[in-house]
Amino acid sequence: MTRIIAIANQKGGVGKTTTTINLAASLARAGRSVLLIDLDPQGNATMGSGIEKMELECSIYDLLTGQAEFSDVVTYADEAGYEILPANSDLTAAEVALLNADEKELILKKVLEKNKDQFTFILIDCPPSLNMLTVNALVAADSVLIPMQCEYYALEGLTALSETIQAIADRFNPSLEIEGILRTMYDPRNRLTLDVSEQLKEHFGAKVYRTVIPRNIRLAEAPSYGLPVMVYDKASRGALAYIALAGEILRQYAKE
Amino acid sequence: MTRIIAIANQKGGVGKTTTTINLAASLARAGRSVLLIDLDPQGNATMGSGIEKMELECSIYDLLTGQAEFSDVVTYADEAGYEILPANSDLTAAEVALLNADEKELILKKVLEKNKDQFTFILIDCPPSLNMLTVNALVAADSVLIPMQCEYYALEGLTALSETIQAIADRFNPSLEIEGILRTMYDPRNRLTLDVSEQLKEHFGAKVYRTVIPRNIRLAEAPSYGLPVMVYDKASRGALAYIALAGEILRQYAKE
Ligand SMILES: Nc1ncnc2c1ncn2[C@@H]1O[C@H](COP(=O)(O)OP(=O)(O)OP(=O)(O)O)[C@@H](O)[C@H]1O
Ligand SMILES: Nc1ncnc2c1ncn2[C@@H]1O[C@H](COP(=O)(O)OP(=O)(O)OP(=O)(O)O)[C@@H](O)[C@H]1O
Ligand SMILES: [Mg+2]
Ligand SMILES: [Mg+2]
């Protein structure tokens, strides 16, 4: 029973990639079979998983444009512990190519339908945009996990994101739901953080994860080694937080 | 003699908007006539300047698509002290519309040629992408100011950004140069920050501003009041840093 989760937020730098990598690694350590899909032409999730994006023979671009098979593109990120569909700047061409394709919002969904069964979790790292790549992720996904930096611009952008999710649910994907809201780079010493956190809980209630990801320099250092934080520094606050998040998510599924 | 500066970096959340607003306000306080152009459909610079993006009769979208005149769209942000071409989600449609237009990379340049003379500085806030909006900014600009968070993904993305700047200079805008590299959210206690900072200086030399913008919660709070930080809290480290940056930039022009 595969669960496809889009990690999305059009606000930049809120921790989408950091969350996708470290949640994927934590779920893999918990024994689940995980696929990470890098849907960002910047290829951050690819590099942060130890895959050199400049040396890819084929990437998710080739898969989306039908030029390569899933088995050609999927790669095992051995230190991270999950499979990955890697991305590089070729994907920029996809943003334009997709706009002219038939059923352009369903391309990723169709690719995944044929290939998802071997995985328990598929996590999709989205770019900071509500463009056709993110739309494809939201159409293909069962749910969306929203990393949220507890600051003004991110809170303000949540309205547009919620409207987009609703529009996609109405039109393409009626079962799409919010997996959860994850507070990232959380610093409880700030009045602003606490205020925004309060507003999130008022609006999203139990959807806001109890687990928060604290600001921890290890999370910023790990990708420079191409490692998830729990491989780079397993006792760090960042590692413990993402392992706790995986636990919170798995317990939600255990209840169902 | 108008100076048009694009504030660009395809990496999300590195402080583009915060820099555009606070540099614009600092230059205005130094007596210069400043125009801020919000080129991001997320409209952060618009909201952070105290302009309600949901209540705009017309926005930069209408200007770029020829549906409104410059004088209809330009608005004075009174507390901030500069003029602004505001943005809202209509601009998302522009990303697609522009792709089909003639000379699509020159649309903003042509608009500005007719209207720039009244301003000393025009600062353009770009979205976290190297899409057609950012391309328009780079084609229209005299120079690009790159805010840089001293962390791995931002450093890794600098290659793609430099290549894009070079490609645009070669093809459309031979006088395009790098105005400077601004280290943002700077925390000198981190080894990573210092390492990345060193690499920036090795690669970009004197282009790296001496002024760094420290991490300061006032910078994150100010936009929730629709104010630049020096209006919100003029003695804050964030305010002093952006005023110092404006000084460093103005001294460079004084030398020319
Ligand atoms: N909890 C944290 N503590 C410290 N640094 C963090 C934390 N989470 C992420 N970072 C760092 O902050 C920066 C932004 O995070 P990240 O790139 O994951 O965000 P993003 O939402 O994927 O950005 P983009 O919108 O550009 O895709 C990165 O340099 C990352 O290493
Ligand atoms: N020096 C700083 N200290 C503390 N917070 C900051 C600082 N600079 C920016 N911020 C906050 O960090 C977040 C990201 O900054 P900002 O939105 O300006 O980046 P951006 O590059 O414009 O992002 P995007 O790529 O989404 O357009 C915002 O919430 C902002 O208020
Ligand atoms: Mg990312
Ligand atoms: Mg911005």
The major β-sheet of chain A equals: 7 strands, mixed
Oligomer: homodimer
Helix content range of chain A: 40-55%
The number of helical segments of chain A is: 12
Strand content of chain A: 5-15%
By DSSP, the count of extended strands of chain A is 7
Describe the overall structure:
The structure is a homodimer of 256-residue chains. The first copy, chain A, has a seven-stranded mixed β-sheet with strand order 3-4-2-5-1-6-7, with helices on both faces. The two termini of chain A are 12 Å apart. Helices cover 46% and strands 14% of the residues of chain A. Chain A has helices at 16-29, 44-48, 60-64, 70-73, 90-99, 107-115, 132-140, 152-171, 191-204, 217-221, 229-232, 237-255, and strands at residues 3-7, 34-38, 75-77, 82-85, 121-125, 143-149, 177-184. Chains A and B meet through helix 2, helix 5, helix 8 and helix 10 of A and helix 2, helix 5, helix 8 and helix 10 of B. The complex binds adenosine-5'-triphosphate (2 copies) and magnesium ion (2 copies). One magnesium ion (MG) binds next to helix 1 of chain B. The site of one magnesium ion (MG) has 4 residues of chain A, from helix 1.
